[in-house]
Amino acid sequence: MLAPFIGLGALGLASAAGYHTMGPTSQLYGRNFVGLPKGTKKLALTYDDGPNDPYTESILNVLDIHDVKATFFLIGRYVRQRPDLVRRQVVLGHAIGNHTWDHPNLIFSTPHSLRSQLGKTSQEIFDACGQKPTLFRPPFGGRRPGVIQTASSMGMTAVMWNVTCYDWSATSNEKIEAHAARQIRGGDVILLHDGGHKFFGADRNWTVKATDNLIRRYKDEGYEFVTVPEMLSEGIVHRL
């Protein structure tokens, strides 16, 4: 009866090893930023898959109330639909990054399609707000050899995360907040979503509410909310 348990144990170790090499904090395929040293009293809220009606604007309103700046990783085809939201993000002092044109898994991309995805999105963002992004986040966190290097050659730093809130499948803001609380240790880059990669208009109501509550809680605990570029300015390009 021991053999099945040994097999399960080996499977668990293999899964853990796979996560270590392919998970968001892995540096296997090139240096990417995932946060400051643990214990640092700074947090970065990051939002993927926008801009998105009406939730991007709702999140911007919450951030404005609390005087907090965040970082938004934008999908190019959505930028084309709502360039005004991108302009508002920049005017309000938030940071923006490239999240590809239509959110493919870059593990399967060719070098040509990767450059096209990034270049087309950067141009769309520039047309919307007059700035080309200097940050890049791969959809699904998917990397393979050459992805981070290509982004770097196009002037972008790869940014991952180390706190996953699972807001894309959450059924309440409390669940999002609980996921965050279990992982936050200071110096963290927090992954949230103001949109959805499958279609424009994805419901992110719970994320809006969780954003408000997370800011209140962690400000009360003495944390400062900063943008990813503000973290990068401290000279640490990755977190082991």
UniProtKB/TrEMBL annotation:
<dbReference type="GO" id="GO:0005975">
    <property type="term" value="P:carbohydrate metabolic process"/>
</dbReference>
<dbReference type="Pfam" id="PF01522">
    <property type="entry name" value="Polysacc_deac_1"/>
</dbReference>
<dbReference type="InterPro" id="IPR050248">
    <property type="entry name" value="Polysacc_deacetylase_ArnD"/>
</dbReference>
<keyword id="KW-0378">Hydrolase</keyword>
<dbReference type="InterPro" id="IPR002509">
    <property type="entry name" value="NODB_dom"/>
</dbReference>
<keyword id="KW-0479">Metal-binding</keyword>
<feature type="domain" description="NodB homology">
    <location>
        <begin position="41"/>
        <end position="226"/>
    </location>
</feature>
<dbReference type="GO" id="GO:0046872">
    <property type="term" value="F:metal ion binding"/>
</dbReference>
<dbReference type="GO" id="GO:0016810">
    <property type="term" value="F:hydrolase activity, acting on carbon-nitrogen (but not peptide) bonds"/>
</dbReference>
<dbReference type="GO" id="GO:0016020">
    <property type="term" value="C:membrane"/>
</dbReference>
<dbReference type="InterPro" id="IPR011330">
    <property type="entry name" value="Glyco_hydro/deAcase_b/a-brl"/>
</dbReference>
<protein>
    <submittedName>
        <fullName>Polysaccharide deacetylase</fullName>
    </submittedName>
</protein>
